[in-house]
Give the backbone structure.
Amino acid sequence: MPWPTDPGAGVAAYPSPNHGPRRDGARPDLIVLHHTAMESAEAALARLCDPVAEVSAHYLICERGRVWQLVDEDARAWHAGAGRWGDVGDVNSRSIGIELANCGDHPYPRPQMAALETLMRGIMARRAIPPARVIAHSDLAPGRKTDPGPRFDWRGLACAGLSVWSDAGAEGAAGWPRFEAAAARFGYPVGDAGREALLAAFRLRFRPHATGSLDRADCARMADLAARFPVDRAGPNA
């Protein structure tokens, strides 16, 4: 099947029926990363193409680095569900969804990450998507989703210029008002799922080994991210 958007060499077309038009003429300006939480890439491929399941993504990448395109980038895949980022509520209409074959509790193999980086570079160039608008499923839906999980290498992705990161030290006071204000400036849906869910979503991505109550390191990193990468609330393609 020919795709209106050419994703590049090495990507196999495997059309899913689970898609529709992007609403109100929206164009994608976010990338959302997921893990499949299934026993194999093939099982995930079958589910993402099952009309009964009513779920899909634009791309699926297996552990060995094979990439399938399930939905054309110009169409609205059904991957994000309820949630928001900045002022974007219909994330499906404004995003490209990428599924990574992983149960969520083991590292992502290098061939898979290399394929992801290659795929993302193409998408970000075609769609003019900046690194700050590459997010986790858990970012837009705190308390509801945890993917791609604590084993995903967000720092490495940021070092490759494909996402953002903070190594800010534990400076300043710890407190929920400071943390929540910065989280909202960065893009998190503050207030949608409660403080603990917000903290858990932030730590999954930026402090995956942290435990316990909100602390100064959480607040410092969140403040640093908000200062350097404040969300374009409506998005560049609003």
In short: The domain at 11-159 is CATH 3.40.80.10 (Lysozyme-like). The radius of gyration is 17 Å.
